[in-house]
Specification:
The structure holds 2 protein chains of 2 kinds. Chain A is α/β, with parallel strands linked by helices. Chain A is built from 16 helices and 19 strands. Chain B has 8 helices and 7 strands; from the N terminus they run E-H-H-E-H-E-H-E-H-E-E-E-H-H-H. In chain B, strand 5 and strand 6 form a beta hairpin. The longest helix of chain B has 14 residues. The chains are: A alpha/beta, B alpha/beta.
Chain lengths: 469, 201
């Protein structure tokens, strides 16, 4: 009888190739996603050393960070972005790796494309040179971001040198109240955990409120694990997972499917397994959330006020808060719902999936964006875009006054032309509110798609519950 | 990768918590397809004004710290994205050691792959080192990886911990990929076994 194991332990054990005496492990990597920003130097490294890609079929490449979200028929005009995207396609050819090019309808944000294609499967190890790789943990796979040197290591060996992480479980028990979404759950979690609280851990999310989420919602939660400092988040696979995966282009078929599901059903934490840390959150207490500062832990309820640095736990935090308030142009005690916004961004690997767009459209339907606000919707992938158009969501957004764009990372990190001007304030469904993240001097408030739309309509950060029947 | 044995140089104080990778190197510099040339853009938004002129108050713009080789910073240094451009820009500037109470995981890992030594030291030790680093041109530290010691200008010696395998790789400038490829037969055996037991992967 083996000792009870966590979900993380099971996946880890299943991928162990070698364990050195000092505890350093070599783990096998099942799937590798590659994008244009963090890969060129890795391919260059391979070329310089004459190394090949060990398992090219286990890597999938797609350009997302730099692609324009406006008309692409003329290609990319910005020369540096064009060079990166062209380099990705050239490296794909040179090393035998599949690339979804810019004109491929499957192109989109890597973390939306992987699950959509069935490239992401339960029980796997999945990496990408991108910290939001944690998204894929929603399938019960161990998925984490890596640096470019590690991208090169995975390309050359299909393995990574790693030390095992510590286990944390966050249980969100009970039912979510009206107006609260997966985004509000994860913002609440980060506010409890702190931006470094998850450092060194893999977090397993569990409890009734997590189990009740769709795959899209689960991806939103796991996506932002890194904002709590954890490289990876995990949710045990269940019928919701299997139903999502079944029939996807790269998912197992026929006999393999049955075998796979049988194995996937064993992927849960055993009764009595040890967690180094455990947190329980009452879902009923989660009301819609919004960030006020420049760290993802700077979270308050939409009904709340900007906090006072004098109330901070320590001087380091107080100093950081004062800096945030100055950068954000806010005053302690100011009501959140009285904060005027200029821009709205709906999209990103956090909230750019079809369910997010449906939720946003349901609030936007029959309403108008305030004339003082410039609002845009950027679907997470070409397939999400097509699905949304088939459902008529694009028409709802357009009629309400939103711009309807081509897929990509867009204003989540503002590497392409989509960015805030200095001092502009944005209600954004993305994942980071760091200084300058959406453009130098830009001010970001992280929110759910529903709050983003409600705010676009009023021109102020707004509690979406006012718009719900 | 260059070996890291003993490093002597000026230590620059950056007393901020949660220094994120967007602060270390903002996105407009991620469009490069090279690893080099990023040093001039390190801490870009804190270092230069809108017109591109140096902001004299920023620590690395002060005469005493322009050639700093060590950085002392607040907790959770390097949080945010996985961009290895962050350690590349630090290295390209000439900094090979960052000392902080804690680091974000991915950044911490990325440092070792580039011959940078990130040292986790308790808050009170960091406070002391931050004060010592405040001494301008006199803030010369020696970091000895073999002895696992930091020597401050006033003769104080602080010891630090670092993972043994990572220390070994840094001291010898070892290439991870080369080390792993020695284990190729184990990787092959693993793949063969997986193919039999989990054919859908």
């Amino acid at each position: 009888m083996t000792a009870p194991r966590t979900l993380f332990d099971k996946i880890w054990d299943n991928h162990l190739v070698d364990r050195q005496e000092d505890g350093t492990c070599l783990i096998y990597i099942d799937r590798h996603l590659v994008h244009e920003v963090t890969s060129p130097q890795a391919f260059e490294g391979l070329a310089l050393t004459g190394r090949k890609v060990h398992r090219p079929e286990q890597t999938l490449a797609v350009a997302d960070h730099n692609v324009p979200t406006t008309d692409r028929s003329a290609g990319i005009t910005e020369p540096e972005s064009k060079l990166q995207v062209d380099t990705l396609e050239a490296n794909g050819k040179a090393f035998g790796i599949r690339v979804f090019g810019m004109s491929d309808e499957r192109q989109g944000i890597v973390h939306i494309v992987g699950p959509e294609q069935g490239f992401t499967l339960p029980g796997m190890t999945i990496v990408c040179g991108d910290s939001h790789t944690s998204t894929h943990g929603a399938f019960g796979s161990l998925a984490f971001g890596i640096g470019t040197s590690e991208v090169e290591h995975v390309l050359a060996t299909q393995t990574l040198v790693q030390a095992p992480a510590k286990n944390m479980r966050i249980r969100v028990e009970g039912k979510l109240p009206k107006g609260a979404t997966a985004k509000d759950i994860v913002l609440k979690i980060i506010s409890v955990l702190g931006t470094a609280g998850g450092t060194g851990y893999v977090i397993e999310y569990a409890g009734e409120a997590i189990r009740n989420l769709s795959m899209e919602g689960r991806m939103t939660i796991c996506n932002m694990s890194i904002e709590g400092g954890a490289r990876a988040g995990l949710i045990a696979p269940d019928e919701t997972t299997f139903a999502y995966v079944k029939g996807r282009p790269m998912a197992p078929k026929a006999e393999d499917w049955d075998k796979a599901v049988l194995y996937w059903m064993s992927l849960h934490t055993d009764e009595g397994a040890h967690f180094d840390k455990e947190i329980v959150i009452d879902a009923a207490e989660i009301i819609p959330q919004v960030t006020w500062g420049t760290s993802p832990e700077d979270v308050v309820p939409i009904t709340g006020s900007v906090p006072n640095p004098d109330d901070a736990a320590d001087e380091g935090k107080a100093k950081a808060m004062r800096r945030s308030l100055e950068y954000m142009g806010l005053k302690a005690g100011q009501k959140i719902e009285e904060v005027k916004i200029d821009r709205v961004f709906i999209g990103s690997c956090t909230n750019g999936r079809i369910e997010d767009l449906r939720a946003a459209a349901s609030v936007a339907k029959g309403r108008k964006v305030d004339p003082s606000v410039k609002a845009m919707v950027v679907p997470g992938s070409g397939l999400v875009k097509h699905q949304a158009e088939a459902e008529g969501l694009d028409a709802i957004f357009r009629e309400a006054g939103f711009e309807w764009r081509e897929p990509g990372c867009s204003m989540c990190l503002a590497m392409n032309a989509d960015k805030l001007e200095p001092g502009e304030r944005c209600a954004s469904t993305s994942n980071r509110n760091f200084e300058g993240r959406q453009g130098r001097g830009g001010r970001t408030h992280l929110v759910s798609p529903e709050i983003a739309v409600a705010s676009a309509i009023t021109g102020y950060l707004t509690d979406v519950r006012k718009f719900l029947a | 990768m260059d070996k890291f044995e003993v490093l002597t140089g000026v230590a620059a104080p950056l007393p901020m918590i949660n220094v994120d990778t967007d602060m270390i190197i903002p996105k407009q510099f991620l469009k490069t397809i090279k690893r080099t040339g990023l040093g001039k853009s390190l801490f870009f938004e804190m270092r230069y004004d809108d017109a591109g002129n140096e902001i004299p108050e920023f620590v690395l713009n002060k005469p005493a710290y322009r050639n700093a080789k060590i950085l002392v910073a607040g907790a959770n240094f390097g949080c945010g994205s996985s961009r290895e451009h962050a350690p590349w820009s630090i290295l390209d500037f000439g900094i090979r050691c960052v000392i902080a109470p804690s680091f974000a995981d991915i950044f911490y890992n990325n440092c070792f792959k580039n011959g940078i030594l990130p040292i986790k030291a308790p808050q009170e030790v960091c406070d002391k080192l931050m004060k010592a680093a405040d001494n301008g041109a006199n803030a010369t530290f020696t970091v000895d990886l073999k002895a696992q010691e930091i020597h401050t200008p006033d003769g104080e010696v602080v010891s630090f911990d670092v993972d043994e395998f990572r220390r070994h790789c840094l001291l010898n400038g070892l290439d991870d990929i080369g080390l792993t490829l020695v284990k190729k037969p184990k990787i092959d055996a693993y793949e063969a076994d997986r193919k039999a037991t989990q054919p859908w992967v």
